[in-house]
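Final report, Chapter 2: Outcomes

The project's central promise was a pipeline that accepts a single protein chain and returns its three-dimensional structure in a standardized token representation, suitable for archiving and comparison. That pipeline is now operational. To close this chapter, we reproduce one record exactly as it appears in the project archive, with the input sequence first and the structure output second.
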Amino acid sequence: MNWLKIVAVVVVLIVAGVLFKKIANYKPAPEPRQKTIGDTFREDDKRLRAEPNFAPPVDSNAAPVQQTVVAEQPRTFRQLTEEEEAGASQSFELAVTQRKIGRMTRQYGAMVQYCREIIQKYPGSEYAYKAKRMLATELPADKREFYHITADELDLSK
């Protein structure tokens, strides 16, 4: 009978040791990393600087944008001179920066101004396409009305 008590105590000590070891080595699963404003800005940069893909823009907050694309004709952009390229590039960078600021302040006037400048000064260029895409996908629908965005400024088929 004594040996049964000794075996029971040994089994209890072994179980207690195993449980202690598991508790001592327990590491909670890491919490998923929360998205920072920097992450959001990097996603914006990637999306806004993306090459034209001529697919209809997708924006869950916006009304659908009508787009007409002729599949048989390859899409070409007007070639810009070096001076035009520099000006368009600078205006586009300013528009992207103002988009970032607009994300935080909900003020998009400067972004709209730079996009309009690009569309007017460099029509038919890749920058004009990207500026129109920015207005179509990045500007909330209620702000489009507020800034009087025209259908021509949203037309990605031209």
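Archive annotation: The two ends are 95 Å apart (CA to CA).
This record, like all others produced under the grant, will remain available to the consortium after the project formally closes.
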